[in-house]
Every structure is written in C-alpha cells, then in structure tokens.
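Progress report, Aim 2. The chain analyzed during this reporting quarter is listed below.
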Amino acid sequence: MGTDRQPYFAPSSDNGVLNDNRTSAPQVTTVGRTLIYRATDLTPMSRRLDRYKRPLLYVMSSLYLLAGVAHFLAPKSFERAVPPQFPRPLELVYLSGIAEIALGIGVLYRRTRGVSAWGIVALLIAVFPANVHIATSDVLDADLPPRFARVARLVALVRLPFQAVLIAWAWWYTKPIADSQP
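Predicted structure tokens for the chain:
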C-alpha cells in the first residue's frame, strides 16, 4: 500500500526553503514550543511585580476592610444595589460586609491567605450581579444629586470590566509570597 506518511514541510537547514526535510521537524517543534512559551510566559512581568506584592496586599486588605465596614455604616445604600430578584437584600448586605471584613483580615495571615484570596475571588463573582444592577438601573439616583448621577453611572459601567482586574488581584494572592511571610 506504500507509505501513509504525510509530507512534513519545514525550513531546511541549508537554505531556509520549505521542503519535506523530516530531519528538521524536531527543531521546528522545539522552536515553536519555545516561541509559544516565551509569548505566553508572564514570569518576567511577575518577577517585576513581586516587589509590590506585599505592599499591595495591605492595600487590598484595607480596601476590603473599609468596604465591609461601609456595609454596616450605610446599609440602605448597599441594599438598593442588590438586584430585586434576590431575596432578603438587607441580610445579603450584612453577609457580604461580614465576608469582606473577614476576608480582608484573612489575606493578611500566611495560614489563611490562600483560602481568603479564593474567598475574595468568589465574593467578587457573587456580587457582580449587584454591580450590573447598579450600572443598568437608576439606583444611584436615590443617593446622589442629579448632576453627579450621570458620572456615577459611567463609573459603574467602567467598574464592570474592572471587576476582572480585582479578581486577578485577589487570585495573585492564592500563590505564596516569595519573600519571608508574616
């Protein structure tokens, strides 16, 4: 029946012209893998960001602590952000406030950092419907003067894709910090 091999076209080693030189196939595969690896490797960027990982941990923790406390200081504002399809909006506000405080504290400690970071990722995904509700409804009109409501709605729309940045930031802490850890 003859050979059932398909010709492999790869640059030849002598003149760069395409031919079916099977001896260069491993080289092309290795070069291809190397190019793909280098194109998708975030290690150099990660190394540059590593020096900011600890200070940004404190920033992130502070933001979640402040946001969690705000849920208790202005629960009615947060309650309006809960989509109407969700039951017991005030209880959800308090629950998310408790979660933000607990997770904001949890990321500060090495033993609980990974679990807390995953908890923040889950929390950010869970509150995304509220962010969509804020951006697409008139909830902001009740809390702001009319001249600021339009700007606030624009900020709420911009925040929707920014949620992915917040998720990535929290996910960063699911991996250990390289230097000495508290």
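The radius of gyration is 25 Å. Strands lie at 10-11, 18-19. These observations will guide the mutagenesis work planned for the next reporting period.
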